[in-house]
Known about the structure:
This protein is an alpha/beta fold. Helices cover 26% and strands 25% of the residues. It has nine helices and 13 strands. The chain has helices spanning 83-95, 113-121, 134-143, 159-165, 191-200, 218-228, 240-243, 262-270, 281-287; strands at 30-32, 39-43, 46-52, 59-64, 67-73, 103-107, 126-130, 152-155, 171-176, 201-213, 233-238, 249-256, 277-280. Helix 1 (83-95) runs parallel beside helix 2 and helix 1 (83-95) runs antiparallel to helix 8.
Amino acid sequence: MARGTARRHADERGGRASDAGRSGQRSAPRSRGRDGSVVRAQVDGGVAVLVPDPDRPHAWSLLLDEAPQSYVDLADPTHLGFEYQRRLGHVVDVLAPPGRPVQVLHLGGGALTLPRYVAATRPRSTQQAVEVDEALTRLVREHLPLEPGRRIRVRSGDARAALEKLPEAWADLVIADVFDGARTPAHLTSVEFLHEVRRVLRPDGWYAANIVDGRSLRHLRAQIATAAAVFPERCLLADPAVLRGRRFGNGVLLAAAGELPVAELTRRTAGDPHPGRVEAGRSLEAFTAGAAVVTDARATASPSPPEGTFG
């Protein structure tokens, strides 16, 4: 899944790449395992490893510094292997009817899992993905190539800088999934950043963000409060254990200017292999009570995962 201004990102079980802030000038020596399938490469964000899935002949996991980053099935791009990816897939599925093209900006590129999903379910969609790690992009293009004609453009650079260059009302959906050392960079957590997101969105567009937090939930609550300063409507899709602060994990924040299909998202999330919960309205307000809006002046990166999270 992604890199856009960071290095690695944590999913329910591990971490995942997003922008590193370095430009990919280093060479990327590669080696294969003895069975000829595992691929290792030095990229800007660390050591990337592509591991085949023994149960799905065309599926691969991308690890960065031993942490799971993305999962891609080249034969079936609609198969989303990670929990948070399935929840982002639900967002795509309720955004527009199947087959209707959309314009999507992905802040974070990685193995391009969600861009592939959008292209497969909504052909002729126009998509841009921002990925700072050029060596990682080359590795993905070589070993996990995109199907021809998918209309997915991968840009190299910082996620916020790329966002600021896009015209107003360009996107139907902006997905933020950017991590550096398993932490979301501070400049992608502020109200100023979200004002740029809303500028780029069409009036009926949506913003979706993958947010990680642990026991205190201070970061997650602050991100929801910050979104509330920009977007009138919000909901949160997450594992109940994460919402209770029992484990470090992912929450998918969805925000928009207009009404969100909370009931449909609730139904889909509850039907996941690992069922989740959707918080919205009064319950979400109660969850975020007392959290302050984050500004550029006081922004900090998301919390580091506890030791052993990626073990």
